[in-house]
């Protein structure tokens, strides 16, 4: 079962991306470096609660 997650920029806290993950195999939170259009640079995006 894949569940939807929201990725939040760690610098400006804007919710930029949505993704899915399998919660049975990945129990920890996802952290990905992605482009933030608000900061206008690549930043670390973390999975929100």
UniProtKB/TrEMBL annotation:
GO molecular-function terms, A-Z: structural constituent of ribosome
Organism of origin: Mariniplasma anaerobium
InterPro entries xref list: Ribosomal_bL33 (IPR001705), Ribosomal_bL33_sf (IPR038584), Ribosomal_zn-bd (IPR011332)
Keywords of the record: Ribonucleoprotein, Ribosomal protein
UniProt cross-references to NCBIfam families, sorted A to Z: PRK00504.1, PRK00595.1, rpmG_bact
Protein's name in the database: Large ribosomal subunit protein bL33
Domain of life, per lineage: Bacteria
Annotated Gene3D superfamilies: Ribosomal protein L33 (2.20.28.120)
Lineage: Bacteria, Bacillati, Mycoplasmatota, Mollicutes, Acholeplasmatales
Keyword tRNA processing found: no
Family, per entry: Belongs to the bacterial ribosomal protein bL33 family.
Biological-process GO terms, alphabetical: translation
Annotated HAMAP family: Ribosomal_bL33
A GO cellular-component term linked to this record: cytoplasm
UniProt key word Chaperone: no
């Amino acid at each position: 079962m894949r569940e939807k997650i929201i990725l939040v920029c760690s610098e400006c806290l804007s919710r930029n991306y949505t993704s899915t993950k399998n919660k049975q195999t990945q129990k920890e939170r996802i952290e990905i470096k992605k482009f933030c259009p608000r900061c206008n640079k690549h930043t670390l995006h973390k999975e929100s609660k």
